[in-house]
């Protein structure tokens, strides 16, 4: 048999019907649902008198609209309240498991799925949410779908899909100390742009990827969509199996052994060809900060804000000009001179336990700068519980961070956590579009370590020498 990529194997395993030059019909193994993109889908089912075909393969949670301060209902905002209540009713009516506000499993859908062990290698996973690509970290073919597709999957457990092409992003070398998975994916997008992977499924390969923990792999795959990709994939290995073993919905006993045996066979065969391949050397990457209004407008912390004339094409120059105006930044300003007002640590990109540990390590023993308002929002109730067990909440609170309830929070302005116009935020989320965190708000995407360090210094700093620098600055009374 011809050698195949991991993508081709998963695809072939799920095609129910294929015709030349037409989208294929795929079987879907797991459907995740949240309150924002599901109401019309359920309504469509109801109007058509249909049922959910596989309620046992469908799991829901509330995340985008939930307040992160006070969880007691009713929720103030009428639209948010309606969306949440509608999901509660729909799950009841159609027999779907909902991880609701009062359950400790509730959280951002892409944090919740993996940590419950719902996400397995080789599965097809969909959700009415673009960052479904996160689950690709397990070697699952996972992608976002629109509301009408949500309805289709609810009704049939199948989905029409045009077969994407394959792109290998090979990461050679090692990530330097203080440089994280977030910096890696921001650097990849800065290097090749926000549409370099349009029409492709990315498979990340190479030593640097193999060395990443599951949570770091999720950070990388999460932002595949910001590179335009349909999905991101990482081959399952011991790290994957170790993470999954024993989780609530992971296979148990003999089933587990059988599953692992099958998962091992999913990896790309030697000699299999991708449609395209790019290579990046991890050892050249610095901690990243975005300066503009697209995730591709990123630069290393030792750099300066670029000038429009630095760009090769007229379109890029115009985009840079517009972004700089919106962001209120002068070209050539050193990145470390940019003062911030707010810090948000959380989201499906960086709201997991390892992210909180990393941020707490930086913040431990320091105080948030007086002009900065900083918050830490665990990605799920389970992350929150674990963090509190480890005392991370105390470290953050003592340093002056707010410690919140789980949800999407300030990743996007769909709940009370928003930036005021003109406010500048160091954010561990994945999108920095105009107004993403509140109308007129300015977002800089960074890693959790960089966000925590910026909270304390009041401006961006290079975390690679955080300990040394912070002590010096403390001695000089500038922190
Ligand atoms: C609200 C939802 C549809 C949206 C998405 O699809 O990604 C959101 O999660 C986001 O991050 O912008
Ligand atoms: S945390 Fe942000 S990116 Fe993730 S699902 Fe929520 S809004 Fe979308």
Automatic annotation (TrEMBL):
Its EC number is 4.2.1.33. Its cofactor is [4Fe-4S] cluster. One of its GO terms (molecular function) is metal ion binding. [4Fe-4S] cluster binds at residues 348, 408, 411. Binds 1 [4Fe-4S] cluster per subunit. Residues 8-458 form the Aconitase/3-isopropylmalate dehydratase large subunit alpha/beta/alpha domain. It is an enzyme of class 4 (lyase). It catalyses: (2R,3S)-3-isopropylmalate = (2S)-2-isopropylmalate; citrate = D-threo-isocitrate. It holds the Pfam family Aconitase. Pathway: Amino-acid biosynthesis; L-leucine biosynthesis; L-leucine from 3-methyl-2-oxobutanoate: step 2/4. Keywords: 4Fe-4S, Amino-acid biosynthesis, Branched-chain amino acid biosynthesis, Iron, Iron-sulfur, Leucine biosynthesis, Lyase, Metal-binding. It comes from the Bacteria. InterPro entries: 3-IsopropMal_deHydase_lsu, Acnase/IPM_dHydase_lsu_aba_1/3, Acoase/IPM_deHydtase_lsu_aba, Aconitase_4Fe-4S_BS, Aconitase_4Fe-4S_dom, IPM_dehydratase_rel_enz, IPMI_cat. GO terms for biological process: L-leucine biosynthetic process. Catalyzes the isomerization between 2-isopropylmalate and 3-isopropylmalate, via the formation of 2-isopropylmaleate. Belongs to the aconitase/IPM isomerase family. LeuC type 1 subfamily. This is 3-isopropylmalate dehydratase large subunit. It comes from Aneurinibacillus thermoaerophilus.
